[in-house]
């Protein structure tokens, strides 16, 4: 439906938005069902997610492990703080590269937008340096590749 947009706000925030031609219920499910996550949340072509543990409820934990099949890989762990089905998810995550990054506080909303859904992700990093490091990783390219895959799936 559309490419994602990424902008920064202040010293520590990253705001990502993307529209999908699907209901908020479908987009939400794709963000919480482990079997669906393993199909689309893969980043660039050639990567896979052999481990996907996701307990999407307040206090629930998640762990995603990616590999490129050539020896490279990384993982993310986190905890859910708030889960409002089909409209809002708040969680904390940390990436292991292999050392853990500082916690990233993430709020994701799913709003009906005409026939589709406007998804907004608001990330709050602990400091400007952490945000700069995250953005320098090229994360937006992996995110958009994943969202293109999600768009085709739902």
UniProtKB/TrEMBL annotation:
<comment type="similarity">
    <text>Belongs to the AHA1 family.</text>
</comment>
<dbReference type="InterPro" id="IPR013538">
    <property type="entry name" value="ASHA1/2-like_C"/>
</dbReference>
<dbReference type="InterPro" id="IPR023393">
    <property type="entry name" value="START-like_dom_sf"/>
</dbReference>
<protein>
    <submittedName>
        <fullName>SRPBCC domain-containing protein</fullName>
    </submittedName>
</protein>
<feature type="domain" description="Activator of Hsp90 ATPase homologue 1/2-like C-terminal">
    <location>
        <begin position="22"/>
        <end position="153"/>
    </location>
</feature>
<dbReference type="Pfam" id="PF08327">
    <property type="entry name" value="AHSA1"/>
</dbReference>
